[in-house]
Amino acid sequence: MVPVTERRRLRAVGPRDEGTTTPDHLGSLMRRAGQGDESAFAEIYDTLAPTVHGIVRRVVRDPDHAEEVTQEVFVETWRLSPRYSPDRGSVAAWVATIAHRRAVDRVRSEQSSRDRQARHEREAIVVAEGVEAVVTDRLERDRVRRALDLLATPQRQALELAYYGGHTYREVAVLLGAPEGTVKTRIRDGLIRLRDHLGGDR
């Protein structure tokens, strides 16, 4: 168990008097931590936590995320402590490098998540507009319903979830228990057949 996970929350940690904590002392503590000495690691944590949090906070704007990343930094530091060598630089510099990398990774992950969500929302709009175009071009809603009933069940279910349910491709795939690519194909083929049925219903 990593000792940092049981320690007081970061915002309660005050900076230590770093004048009494030399690089050599931190190096000695890290060597002991690498041998499993939790009390040595706890001292490293108390000494460097404010600095690490400051580095992370400058990159990760959200305060809660910054705290999470700071804890992740110390978990990783504890895990990697047996590998620490003075050749990597001072303990403070080594931990600062881990902190910056972790912070950048979190920002990239959050941005990727936002991009995926935006893409899914755009897909939902495209799907809805595709069916809406059919409705607009081909008479009233009841004719569309009759045409939907003529589709194969997989195509009809996918279209109904996408249009009437307002779901994205991925959500439809989850609801139907089918691969996303299969769902896209069903919707595309369903739209083609729906247009064909409506085109013949005059």
CATH class of the largest domain, named: Mainly Alpha
Instruction: List the secondary-structure elements in sequence, H or E.
Output: HHHHHHHH
**Total number of helices:** 8
Mean pLDDT across the residues is 77
Give the count of structural domains: 2
Name of the CATH architecture of the largest domain: Orthogonal Bundle
Work out the number of β strands: 0
Global shape: rod-shaped
Largest sheet: none
Give a written overview of the molecule.
With 202 residues, the protein is mostly helical. It has helices spanning 23-34, 38-59, 63-80, 91-137, 141-149, 153-163, 169-176, 180-200. It has two domains: 3-112, Orthogonal Bundle (Rna Polymerase Sigma Factor, Chain: A); 138-200, Arc Repressor Mutant, subunit A (Orthogonal Bundle), CATH 1.10.10.10. It has eight helices and no strands. The longest helix is centred in the middle third of the chain and has 47 residues, at 91-137.
